[in-house]
Amino acid sequence: MAEITIKKTGEKIVVFKIQNNSGAYVEVINSGATLVSAVAPDKSGQLENVILNYKNVEDYLTDSFYLGSTVGRFANRIAKAQFKINEQTYYLDKNDGNNSNHGGFNGFNSRLFDYEIRDNKVIFSYESADGEGGFPGKLLFSVAYSFSDNNELDIEYKAVSDKASMFNPTNHAYFDLSAGKVNPLECELKVFADSYLESNDEFLPTGKILPLANTPFDFSSGRKISELMPLKNEIIKGYNTFFIGKETKPGLSRLLASLKDNYSGRILEVYSDMPGIQFYTGDYLSAPFAPFGGLCLEAQFYPDAPNQSHFPSCLLSPNQEVTYCIKYKFLT
Predict the structure, then answer these.
(1) How many Å apart are CA 239 and CA 108, to the nearest integer?
(2) Euclidean distance between CA atoms 77 and 304, whole angstroms
(3) Looking at the whole model, is its pTM more than 0.85?
(4) Domain ranges (residues) in the chain
(5) Are 97 and 322 a contacting pair, CB within 8 Å?
(6) Do the beta carbons of residue 242 and residue 276 sit within 8 Å?
(7) What are the phi and psi torsion angles at 269 (to 5°)?
(8) pLDDT for 238-271, tens place per residue?
(9) CA distances from 97 to 78, 169, 261, 276 (A)
(10) Catalytic residue numbers?
């Protein structure tokens, strides 16, 4: 554990390193409850960091890419920055054109979390005030990180609100499994899904659920990303697409996606008990990074779920505690 005081703001960023018996490790910080490194072996056993990060930790205070951060209260977009609960309309921050994205102007990614170490876990906690970002209810939120000897990074989210509210967390790490040696678009992606959400030019779901088969989104059998990308006809070159996980028993974590880098031999598997995964190719990354420099695989609920009654609900009842998990497993 290292503590860094940022001179300009006086804020204290605390860096935690969780290392396993093989020497592989992850690092997390209390600013945005952010994952700042994931150091995993390649096929020859060489340890390298496989997510994008800043060289100077203070840069996380001004980050605009959600780099490795915890996202909330609501990951992804909410149309027109509003939703209804029991006929009452709640108006959110419009931080993405006319819409709300990733919790608004002051989402979890921008907050300094409290922290504790318990049972080999680093646990970050934050109290989100009633009305913060427009969301109803005082929300008590925590995110716990642990890293096993099998190179499994487990992230557990817990939340309880004193009023009915919406809740949809995720992690926004950008993966580069070759550690900068090969374009991430040369990775092979496999999604454990049969369908995806059609989206419009604002990256909002139209409400249509479409089959993957024989489309530029058909990663169901594993395909190189760069091979399918040119077949798309969308506003962006890459992907910003929500894939619907195959059904399983509620509360059970299942495999949503795997990413394979043939150069390093590294494989990333993503598991979650949330209903799907957003795949984003980092089109809008800019200096000090480059577009397509990292790939996001964000397990979460459906985008705009509060306004689409046929999507799985992410409504929190008053005083109902919920727990969701994401597992990133690193293999060779």
Answers:
(1) 24
(2) 6
(3) yes
(4) 2-331
(5) no
(6) yes
(7) -115, 140
(8) 999 999 999 766 667 899 999 999 999 999 999 9
(9) 11, 21, 35, 25
(10) 172, 298
